[in-house]
Design brief:
The chain is α+β, with helices and mostly antiparallel strands. The chain is about 50% helix and about 15% strand. It contains eleven helices and ten strands. Strand 2 and strand 3 form a beta hairpin.
């Protein structure tokens, strides 16, 4: 099996940008990634960015994954969001036995999606039975497998507990054909992600298609990537998406200012000192946010590679940097949108969709204001 090389992932993503941008209107209209885009992502190995090398994946360093996400987001946020979701879901392969992971990820298209943590599965002989419905499965419309994070109850109905007394939480995996998908994603932004709901009825899931998510002792792969866990990787990846959206929106505003005349009296926008100052400050804000996010990821990766441990301090640092970067990116997009004036409201211009997409990103769990409280609590406790 030929492994997907990590080298070149960013360049391949950039090369796909014209195709993705050309399909963006149809992605928005159909609320799905188009077959052409999905095929291009598969053919270029982008869905396999975080899949273990032992399964033919790239197992890319975290910064390569982030840069890949940024490049795709410049062309279309929905495509980048789905790619990020499906790529991070593939990290569960590091906790599955090789044959099971191979069955899921190396039979075309080899794409996994999952939704929010919810509901219970009952332990039975050989596995688990579950009847439930889950929400927020971004990328489910191109997936061949679905997953769900469920609490486990024993055959007697009593909740199973971990050694520390917490509820036992497992990730169960099943073919998409075993589920019913519900078309519910009617959203103001990220409209093309197909972030739909899915349900199963009295589904039996064999034991080997279940595992513990983000539990270090469950890992079968030893690379540093998998010690980060899916939660922090989602945060870094989606923050990178926000940077890509902000970069594209600000670039569109700069291009507009270079050629637009505000009025016959006011002259060219590019000669207006207020516009010049606004662009300068906003460019600085965006560069600062990007530098902060990548510096945090780099420091974490360096320490993780040296020590083999993803510390609570680094988890907190990632959460802070990702949250702040998403919020800062939203401010950049807002400034660019206002700068464009009435031009920004037309669907034919490159502003209104990115404005909506950015504010949909800022509403997700990775951008919650409560993250600041968590980080502040840690700092005040002396752990930083």
């Amino acid at each position: 099996m030929n492994a997907t090389p990590a080298v070149g992932l960013v360049e391949r993503a950039g090369a796909l940008a014209p195709l993705i941008a050309g399909e963006a209107d149809e992605i928005e209209r159909s609320r799905r990634l188009t077959p052409a885009v999905v095929s291009a992502l598969i053919d270029n190995g982008l869905y396999r960015a975080l899949l273990p090398q032992s399964l033919g994946g790239a197992e890319a360093p975290i910064e390569i994954f982030m840069q890949m996400q940024e490049e795709i987001a410049k062309a279309d946020a929905s495509t980048a969001w789905c790619l990020g979701q499906n790529s991070v879901c593939a990290m569960i392969a590091a906790s599955l036995d090789h044959d099971t992971a191979n069955e899921i990820f190396n039979a075309a298209p080899g794409i996994l999606s999952w939704g929010a943590v919810a509901h219970e599965a009952r332990a039975v002989e050989g596995g688990y039975r579950v009847t439930a419905r889950w929400d927020f499965a971004s990328g489910s419309r191109q997936a061949s497998w679905l997953g769900a994070h469920v609490r486990i109850v024993g055959s007697d109905g009593a909740p199973r507990k971990n050694a520390d007394g917490s509820p036992e939480l497992r990730t169960i995996l099943f073919p998409v054909a075993s589920a019913t998908l519900h078309d519910v994603w009617q959203a103001i932004g990220l409209a093309g992600t197909g972030t739909d709901s899915y349900e199963v009825s009295d589904l039996f899931v064999p034991e080997r298609f279940t595992t513990f998510r983000d539990v270090p002792s469950a890992l079968r792969e030893k690379g540093p990537l998998y010690k980060i866990g899916t939660g922090s990787t989602f945060s870094l990846g989606f923050a990178a998406v926000s940077l890509g959206v902000a970069r594209a929106t600000l670039d569109a505003a700069i291009a507009l200012a270079r050629g637009k005349h505000q009025s016959l009296a006011a002259g060219a926008m590019r000669d207006n000192q207020a516009v010049q100052g606004m662009i300068g400050r906003t460019e600085g804000d965006l560069r600062a946010a990007r530098a902060y996010l990548y510096a945090t990821a780099s420091a974490m990766w360096r320490d993780l590679s040296a020590t083999g441990a993803f510390s609570a301090v680094h988890r907190s640092a990632v959460r802070l940097a990702a949250t702040w970067t998403i919020h800062q990116s939203a401010r950049v997009v807002d400034t660019a949108y206002r700068m464009a004036g009435a031009t920004a409201v037309f669907r034919s211009n490159p502003f209104e969709r990115r404005f909506r997409d950015m504010h949909a990103i800022a509403q997700q769990i990775q951008a919650r204001d409560t993250h600041y409280e968590d980080v502040g609590r840690m700092i005040l406790s002396g752990d930083r």
